[in-house]
Each structure stands twice: as structure tokens, then as C-alpha cells.
Design brief:
Strand order of the largest sheet: 2-1-3-4-5-11
Protein name: D-ribose-binding periplasmic protein
Strand content: 15-25%
Keywords: Signal
Number of domains: 2
Distance between the termini: 31 Å
Shape: elongated
Pfam family, one: Peripla_BP_4
CATH architecture of the largest domain: 3-Layer(aba) Sandwich
Radius of gyration: 20 Å
GO molecular function: carbohydrate binding
Helix content: 40-55%
Oligomer: single chain
CATH topology of the largest domain: Rossmann fold
Structural class: alpha/beta
Main location: other
Largest sheet: 6 strands, parallel
Number of strands: 12
């Protein structure tokens, strides 16, 4: 990192101002919550990216809950005030984080957004966006659900936080694809606020209120875990087509025992690793792609032990 202490002029077409770097060369990784295996896997990727870098440090932080948006805003503001060299951010709200990211941009701090996009008001204030193509993932989940249910009957949608960028693409495209290509009736969506216990209770109620339910989709890790537990507790494992999202051990076990037919797993490690690598490239005066797809894998009992699946499971 020979040029690490030099200001970098507009390293990407999106950049609005020259980038300044802190003498400590600290990259702040700020995620929606630290209380999730998914985000801890992002941490592992970010850690791997700086491994062996003597002139760069990485810090990892996030609120206790995804719904504590104000805490995440404060964390970004604190990083800006501290003068970090760069920020990797998973915004918990597409609008609320925009002012903080603008302040980072005005301070000359490069920002890589991961997982969920900012709203249009934030365009031009960050240099790259790394994520799963959530719309493509939602459509993939819908195709498998149509296949499992025969394209008719009731399917419940268990979502997480309404309006989050990843949720808009993932759940929105799932529902749109279902409506366009099948006769399935959508029940919901229900919002767990990314709380496993809330998702468990919501799913229990949905199963009780809809004894003829043919399928159910859990759209992120804590929601899918709560959904899976509710399905097992209700004695519905194997009786309701169930698809989850993300790939922690609980979800892997649900796939193996047949509670879930499939899980869609994002490259969470890759988000952390590639996000930090992008910031380091910008710090070195290089350009980065404005959008980087970190991929998704459909994992079932048949392929869960494959290299493709094992590379993204955590």
C-alpha cells in the first residue's frame, strides 16, 4: 500500500470528491447487527481481506438489533468523525443512512455499500455496491416454490424489515414471480423485524390459521430459523413446502432433516472480503466496479455437501 497516505482523486465514476485517508489506515465495517451468524461471516471475510496487511486495520461493528437504525447511523457518524480510511456499510434502512454516507463522502472517505442498497437520494455518495442480486434470488425461490406446490394453493411469505433494500428485491420479486407464473395465493407478507422469536410466533399463527397452506418462504436468517422451528413444533415438517434464506447451521440442519426443502445462501464471506478489498483498491488510487454481484446458491438435501454449497454455508 505505497500510496496509502496519499489523497486519491475520484477513483470511480461515482466519486464526488477526493478521498482522504486516516494515518491509522483503519477500515470500519458496519453491519445491520452483530447478533447474527450471517453478519459474523461477513466479519470473517473482512478479516481475511486485511490478513497480512501491516499498514491497514479493520474494525467490525453493528447494533444489537437490525431495527436499531439510529444506532447504526451513530456508528457511521462516529467513524466519519474519527477519520477512518474507508467504510464498508450494510445499511439497515435505505433512507436513514443516506445523510451519514453523504457526510463520509464530503469528508473524502470512500464507502462500499454491501447487502442492501441506499435509496436514490444516496446515489453518488458511495463508490461501489456489493450484494446478492436479491431480485434474481427471489425469482429463483419462487420458481422452486412453484415447482414444489404445483403452482397453486396458499403460500405464506415470512419477511423481515419492510422497505430494506434487500427485502424489496428479495420478497418483492418472489411475490411478483409467483403472481405472474402461477395460481398461488399469497398469504402475508409478515414482518419479523429480523427477530427469530417473532418469526416463530408469526409462523405458528399462520400455520394455525391456514391449515390448507401448501408452502412458506422465510426471507432471511432469523426469520427462516423461526419459521423452521414453528414448522417442526406444529408437526408440519415435510407437509408444507418450505424455503428459507441464508445458511447457518440451524438452517442446514432443517434442510438435512427435511423441515426445509431448500435454502438460498448468499456469499456473506465474499461481501466482507470483497467489500474491504474494494476499499483498499480505492485507497491505492485504483478504480472499482460500481456494482459487484456476490452471488447466491440454492442449497437442497441433494447438494448440501457439494463444494459449491460448502463454500457459502457458515
Amino acid at each position: 500500500m505505497k500510496t496509502i497516505l496519499k489523497a486519491v482523486l475520484a477513483a470511480s465514476a461515482i466519486a464526488a470528491v477526493p478521498f482522504a485517508t486516516a494515518s491509522a489506515a483503519e477500515i470500519a465495517v458496519i453491519v445491520k447487527t452483530t447478533n447474527s451468524n450471517f453478519w459474523q461471516n461477513v466479519n470473517k471475510g473482512a478479516t481475511a481481506a486485511v490478513d497480512g496487511q501491516s499498514d491497514i486495520t479493520m474494525t467490525f461493528d453493528g447494533p444489537a438489533s437490525e431495527s436499531d437504525i439510529a444506532a447504526e447511523v451513530n456508528m457511521v457518524d462516529n467513524a466519519v468523525n474519527k477519520g477512518v480510511a474507508g467504510i464498508v456499510l450494510a445499511p439497515s434502512d435505505p433512507d436513514a443512512l443516506v445523510p451519514a454516507v453523504k457526510r463520509a463522502n464530503e469528508a473524502g472517505i470512500p464507502v462500499a455499500i454491501i447487502d442492501s442498497s441506499l435509496s436514490d437520494a444516496g446515489k453518488g455518495t458511495y463508490q461501489t455496491f456489493l450484494s446478492t442480486d436479491n431480485c434474481a434470488a427471489g425469482k429463483l425461490a419462487a420458481d422452486r416454490m412453484i415447482e414444489l406446490t404445483g403452482g397453486e394453493g396458499k403460500v405464506a411469505v415470512m419477511s423481515y424489515v419492510a422497505g430494506v433494500g434487500s427485502e424489496i428485491g428479495r420478497v418483492g420479486c418472489f411475490v411478483d414471480k409467483i403472481k405472474a407464473d402461477s395460481k398461488i395465493e399469497i398469504v402475508g407478507p409478515y414482518y419479523s423485524q429480523s427477530q427469530m422469536a417473532t418469526a416463530l410466533n408469526q409462523t405458528t399463527d399462520v400455520l394455525a390459521a391456514n391449515p390448507d397452506l401448501k408452502g412458506i418462504f422465510g426471507a432471511n436468517e432469523p426469520t427462516a430459523v423461526g419459521m423452521g422451528r414453528a414448522i417442526k413444533q406444529a408437526g408440519k415438517a415435510g407437509q408444507v413446502a418450505a424455503i428459507g434464506f441464508d445458511g447457518n447451521k440451524d438452517l442446514q440442519d432443517f434442510v438435512k432433516d427435511g423441515t426445509l426443502n431448500a435454502i438460498l445462501v448468499q456469499g456473506s464471506f465474499q461481501m466482507g472480503e470483497k467489500g474491504v478489498q474494494a476499499i483498499m483498491e480505492l485507497m491505492d488510487g485504483k478504480s472499482v466496479e460500481p456494482q459487484i454481484d456476490t452471488g447466491v446458491v440454492l442449497v437442497t438435501k441433494d447438494n448440501i455437501d457439494s463444494d459449491e454449497a460448502q463454500n457459502v454455508l457458515y
